[in-house]
């Protein structure tokens, strides 16, 4: 039990995958930071070149995670794949707005909007 004034430990990272046609849909739940970077990188590496990354469950994202996302977005484009981010929330992913990448990355509200845009 926590005492008054203590904050709960950050949620561990949980990554799940499904598919929508030929596109891997990766759902992120938890923290994307230095402690979960390798787990996130390994999961993205296994996803292929067409990815929709659902960040609605991400409670925090640091610049390392954003770097991985940029890397996979660029690799997807170079390989002729498809890439989209959904469920991105400013409060939990401020780094995208601070860096200006929210204006560049393919952001969509939900899976249906992303699939329609990628069709």
UniProtKB/TrEMBL annotation:
Membrane-traversing stretches: none
Q: Which CDD domains match?
A: STAS_anti-anti-sigma_factors
**GO molecular function per UniProt:** anti-sigma factor antagonist activity
Source species, domain of life:
Bacteria
Q: Which Gene3D superfamilies match?
A: STAS domain
Query: Domain STAS: where?
Result: 13-118
Q: Which PANTHER family match?
A: ANTI-SIGMA FACTOR ANTAGONIST TM_1081-RELATED, ANTI-SIGMA FACTOR ANTAGONIST TM_1081-RELATED-RELATED
Q: Which NCBIfam families match?
A: ant_ant_sig
The UniProt family comment states:
Belongs to the anti-sigma-factor antagonist family.
Please report the name of this protein according to its UniProt entry: Anti-sigma factor antagonist
This chain's source organism reads Nonomuraea fuscirosea
Taxon lineage: Bacteria, Bacillati, Actinomycetota, Actinomycetes, Streptosporangiales
């Amino acid at each position: 039990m926590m005492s008054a004034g203590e904050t709960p430990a950050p949620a561990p990272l949980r990554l799940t995958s499904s598919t929508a046609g030929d596109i891997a849909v990766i759902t992120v739940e938890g923290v994307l930071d230095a402690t979960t970077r390798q787990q996130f990188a390994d999961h993205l590496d296994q996803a292929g070149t067409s990815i929709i990354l659902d960040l609605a469950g991400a409670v925090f994202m640091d610049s390392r995670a954003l770097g991985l996302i940029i890397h996979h977005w660029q690799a997807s484009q170079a390989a002729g794949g498809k890439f989209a981010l959904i469920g991105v929330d400013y409060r939990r992913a401020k780094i995208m707005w601070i860096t200006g990448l929210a204006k560049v990355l393919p952001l969509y509200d939900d899976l249906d909007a992303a699939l329609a845009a990628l069709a």
